[in-house]
Amino acid sequence: MVIVVLELRHLKTLIALREHGSLVAAATDLCLTPSAISHQLKELDHWYGVEVVNRRSRPVSFSNVGERLLRLADDVLPQVQIAQTDITRIVHGQTGRIIFSSECHSCFDWLMPLLNQYRQQYPDVDLDFAAGFESNPHELLQNAEFDLLITADPIALKGIEYFPIFEYESRLVLSTTHPLVRKEKILVEDLAEQTLITYPVDKHRLDIMAHLFIPANIQPKHIRTTDLTQMLIQLVASGRGIAALPDWVVNEYEQKGWVVSRRLDCVSPQGLRRTLYAGYRTEDKEKNYFEGFIKQLEKFSQKRTLYYTV
Prior knowledge:
Number of strands: 11
Strand content: 15-25%
Number of helices: 11
Low-confidence stretches: 306-310
Largest sheet: 7 strands, mixed
Helix content: 40-55%
Mean pLDDT: 88
Order of helices and strands: HHHEEHEHEHEEHEHEHEHEEH
Distance between the termini: 81 Å
């Protein structure tokens, strides 16, 4: 029984012979000696019991067995190259998956352009979002249910780090004809008479509830929710209620003249200021593709801070 040990080197040799037409040229291309090429061909001839390559012709020609091996080489070698490239990217952390979760409905306004830039540098990394808004996102991050959490409320947990992305101001949003627009100083009691339009999340996770209404032991008259920022703005603009949104969201609609924003100086003279963080597992920083996203987030933070400082 003859055991045939066909190796990738044999297939590469056959391809080189087809491309260059001679043992000498093929050997030069493969960084081998002509005698090494000849030895490989003798192995093939011995295994299959027929001459695989006619070395006497100019250029060299192939028998039926040789032609079949060439077809095998054409199929196998490109797949091997693709696999080797993929493995190299995996080993060097160029491929993987990042699942995002956010406690901020309006974060997509600045996050999506950032993700589009990241995809250009790491095209083999899958970017996905966790479905829904969880009641315990920090614990889910710790348990690897997702990989990066956008939050304004970091919680000290083992193995979790938080990177401050940027500071923002949560501003009161009113219709252009709302009576509070004309009031010099807005008090929390004034807001208690209003319908608060907000996102459908736990009230303790809303800036205006957690840092204004709840500390004052006051509740808004009514609470109305919507998933979409555009719908929220439309409801406020039509006089259906008030809202509190981050400054980067309000600015766009205020410039269009749809709504008016006011500083919540009943919280502090500087208004209701918060810091947005990115939370992630410390161990994930060892992954090249994840470290690449954190670095991109740092650059974004520096540019945003500089922009708002200027």
